[in-house]
Design goal:
This protein is an alpha+beta fold. The chain has 3 helices and 4 strands.
Length: about 100
């Protein structure tokens, strides 16, 4: 049960070391925290009735770069080719589609 001093799960999450809450397209919520705090944050969230479906390290850019859909498609093609290259474990990018702008 969430202590009464927390008016929301978001307030609780921030208090236990979560740096940001991101609502995903599918309605799920991602809790963003420092890599060293991850395990502790997951344990504390579970103590307060959160049920994580996934927990792990993800590289999140400090700054996103907006780009047109055609340029983003080219970037995705490059990322896909790099991911297929032998020995590459993962590829990260900070490019995102600039929705609704020309």
């Amino acid at each position: 049960m969430i202590p009464k001093r927390y008016f929301s799960r978001a307030a609780l999450a921030i208090d236990i070391g979560v740096e940001d809450l991101v609502t995903n397209v599918d309605g799920s919520v991602s809790f963003v925290c420092d890599e060293q705090e991850g395990e502790t944050v997951v344990q504390q969230l579970m103590e307060y009735a959160f049920e994580p479906s996934d927990a792990g390290v993800r590289h999140v850019p400090n700054q996103w770069i907006s780009m047109q859909a055609d340029k983003h498609a080219q970037l995705r093609k490059l990322v896909s080719a790099l991911e297929d290259y032998h020995g590459v474990k993962s590829v990260a990018t900070n490019g995102k589609v600039n929705v609704g702008h020309d």
